[in-house]
Design goal:
Blueprint: H1 24-47, H2 49-80, H3 90-109, H4 114-117, H5 123-127, H6 130-135, H7 141-172, H8 176-203, H9 216-241, H10 250-281, H11 284-294, H12 299-317, H13 320-324, H14 326-348, H15 361-382, H16 395-399
Helix pairs in contact: 1-2, 1-15, 2-3, 2-8, 2-9, 2-14, 2-15, 3-7, 3-15, 7-8, 8-9, 9-10, 9-14, 10-12, 12-14
Length: about 400
């Protein structure tokens, strides 16, 4: 396979602004899904506030992670001096610049449901609990809100600076912008590690404030890194199928597939490491997290999570030919995108539903609405600049990317 061929090749290659991910009727349909999701959230909020707020947290935290890690992906390539990704770089740039402002609004909205979501947000509960009292200097509504705003401000500023320099290079062709972005990308990567670790503790681990794991931020990062790679690859394949990336070839897909495969194995390694360390130490304040997911109706999903997100990609993406196949890689990315949604679901929901999972159509609608908002925001961001970074010094290398 030398390229990904669309059903017809009449579309423009994306050399000018106005090229998006979605066709007009798809954008209208997704807008209706967003409205339906908002209505479902409002209905669920009246019926069961604790579950409704968790549904919103699940969806928003998942896509915030996908968006900001897409920006990290660009930063990693810049720091490494990689050129292969240049042809598809606009997609991860659109993911972070498009969704993060919406993600901030979603996280701030969660402050209204703080008491339903977080045990530590209830002053009376904190006063009667020695553990929560000891953690109150960090886990409190004011600190949560301030840190959340700071996380997003940091990510939006640093990613925005990388993207603005790249856009300026489109106009001027200044090679110095690439060198400046190497330094900016290094700063982004370092500050991301600190800020994302704290964000996972704030948003997710503090749902069970008596439990802790020092590997937890790495675990969440690895899960959402796979999800980000999958959404990025699906967007690339969609644009290629429409004829907007005519020079996408098998080696671009191979590199994306290697990333998906490698980080799927890394996630599996961290899952096993966390589980075994807690299992053989057998300390009650650590095992409570896994007991809640093993001794109830959560057990089948707990096992399915490992099989879906590690065993399946191990066999499906091990052969090089599978990584280069748009059909196989696209199918696996779709499966893993939902597989890691399941992983985040298992982090968020069991403490609210101790007897086991409960299918909630409002919950599905809320997630679908946030997913639709994510795709609409990516589409809008893509239309702001040419799909092809025509004056990037690495573009020629990327267009002629090949393996050996």
């Amino acid at each position: 396979m030398n390229s990904v061929s669309p059903p017809s090749s009449t579309a423009a290659p994306g050399a000018s602004p106005g090229v998006g991910l979605l066709r007009p009727f798809q954008a209208v349909l997704l807008l209706f899904v967003v409205v339906a999701g908002a209505a479902a959230f409002a209905a669920d909020l009246r019926a069961d506030p604790a579950v409704a707020w968790r549904d919103l947290l699940l969806a928003n935290a998942y896509f915030v992670g996908v968006a900001v890690i897409a920006g990290l992906f660009v930063a990693i390539q810049c720091v490494c001096g990689a050129g292969w990704h240049t042809y598809i770089r606009r997609i991860p740039e659109a993911m972070i610049s498009g969704y993060l402002p919406w993600g901030l609004l979603g996280m701030l909205a969660l402050l209204a449901g703080g008491h339903s979501l977080y045990h530590w947000a209830d002053a009376e509960a904190v006063a009667g609990d020695a553990v929560l009292t000891a953690k109150a200097a960090f886990l409190n509504p004011t600190g949560f809100a301030v840190r959340t705003v700071l996380y997003f401000a940091l990510w939006i500023f640093l990613a925005g600076r990388l993207i603005r320099r790249a856009r300026a290079q489109d106009a001027t062709g200044d090679v110095a912008a690439t060198r400046a972005n190497v330094r900016g990308a290094a700063v982004f990567a370092v500050l991301f590690a600190l800020s994302f670790s704290l964000a996972t503790v704030d948003w997710l681990m503090s749902l069970e404030p008596h439990w802790f794991s020092t590997i937890y931020p790495w675990y969440v990062f690895s899960s959402l890194f796979v999800a980000a790679l999958c959404w990025m690859t699906l967007c690339v394949l969609t644009l290629a199928w429409r004829g907007l990336l005519p020079q996408l070839n098998a080696w671009h897909l191979h590199d994306l597939g290697k990333y998906v495969f490698a980080f799927s194995m890394f996630w599996g390694y961290l899952w096993l490491s966390q589980y075994l360390l807690i299992w053989y130490s057998n300390i009650p304040e650590e095992t409570v997290h896994f007991l809640a997911r093993e001794r109830t109706g959560w057990w089948p999903l707990f096992l399915a999570n490992v099989g879906l997100n590690t065993a399946l990609p191990f066999f499906a993406l091990m052969p090089a030919a599978c990584k280069r196949s748009p059909r196989v890689l696209g199918t696996m990315c779709l499966v893993l995108a939902f597989g890691h949604l399941l992983d985040v679901y298992l982090l968020v929901m069991p403490s609210a539903l101790p007897d086991g999972p409960r299918l909630s159509w409002p919950g599905v609608a809320v997630w679908a609405g946030v997913a639709a908002l994510f795709l609409l925001s990516v589409d809008r961001a893509l239309r702001r600049a040419p799909l092809l970074p025509a004056r990037d010094p690495y573009l020629v290398e990327s267009l002629h990317h090949h393996g050996w």
